[in-house]
């Protein structure tokens, strides 16, 4: 969800009080960010988000009662859901990819620097996704042998032009817009136009969903 005027409203969800307090303390020092609530599991987060408005939710994956994947899946079905930034370690690769499939706008490592977390919140609040190309490549390399196309997705590719398919495939490979422009010998602005067009045709919210769709449609195949 794109941010409204005023500070970015953030809810922090983690079952460890010290981690919640740490994030809240870091974010409290930002003039453009306001922590509007905390929750210790996904169920409590959904209850809280029915009472307070938020632009971004920082969501842990492994939590009791309801985990971050289940909560994200429910939250992103709402009419105007906040952006969801999941926290992960690469000990839980499949969980990170499952969170993106559930609708999360991106993911960060739990030990990411504070500046990276703050920047990710701002990006999500602006309606973009947080899927760093370097981290995406690493994640997909580690889970690719367990990915498989989903039924009914391949037919949706028919709506795309050949160049839009090229761009989507490169996005799924973790390439940045600048790298895609170099690969295809076009201007970066042209890549952005193709990306915007293909997302509109496929009804994808952001780059994170584009990565998931590319695998589920079979456009990109797992590496041997």
UniProtKB/TrEMBL annotation:
Keywords, ordered alphabetically: DNA-binding, Phosphoprotein, Transcription, Transcription regulation
Protein name: Response regulator transcription factor
Coiled-coil positions: none
Superkingdom of the organism of origin: Bacteria
PANTHER family: TRANSCRIPTIONAL REGULATORY PROTEIN NARL-RELATED, TWO-COMPONENT RESPONSE REGULATOR
Gene3D superfamilies per record: 3.40.50.2300
Sites of 4-aspartylphosphate modification: 60
Keyword Transcription recorded: yes
Organism listed in the record: Streptomyces edwardsiae
Keyword field contains Transcription regulation: yes
Response regulatory domain boundaries: 9-125
InterPro entries reported for this sequence: CheY-like_superfamily (IPR011006), NreC/VraR/RcsB-like_REC (IPR058245), Sig_transdc_resp-reg_C-effctor (IPR016032), Sig_transdc_resp-reg_receiver (IPR001789), Tscrpt_reg_LuxR_C (IPR000792), WalR-like (IPR039420)
Domain HTH luxR-type: 153-218
């Amino acid at each position: 969800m794109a941010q409204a005027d005023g500070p970015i409203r953030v809810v922090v969800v983690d079952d460890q009080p010290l981690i919640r307090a740490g994030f809240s303390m870091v974010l409290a020092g930002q003039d453009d960010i306001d922590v509007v609530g905390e929750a210790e599991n996904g169920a409590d987060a959904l209850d809280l988000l029915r009472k307070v408005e938020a632009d971004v939710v920082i969501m842990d994956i492994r939590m009791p009662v309801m985990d971050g994947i289940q909560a994200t899946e429910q939250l992103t079905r709402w009419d105007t859901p906040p952006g969801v930034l999941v926290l992960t370690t690469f000990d839980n690769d499949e969980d990170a990819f499952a969170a993106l499939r559930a609708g999360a706008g991106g993911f960060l490592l739990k030990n990411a620097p504070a500046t990276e977390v703050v920047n990710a919140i701002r990006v999500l609040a602006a309606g973009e996704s947080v899927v760093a190309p370097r981290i995406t490549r690493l994640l997909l390399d580690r889970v690719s042998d367990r990915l498989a196309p989903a039924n009914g997705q391949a037919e949706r590719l028919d709506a795309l032009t050949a160049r839009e398919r090229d761009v989507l495939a490169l996005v799924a490979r973790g390439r940045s817009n600048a790298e895609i422009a170099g690969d295809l010998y076009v201007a970066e602005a042209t890549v952005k136009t193709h990306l915007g067009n293909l997302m509109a045709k496929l009804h994808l919210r952001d780059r994170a969903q584009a990565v998931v769709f590319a695998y589920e449609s079979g456009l990109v195949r797992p590496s041997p």
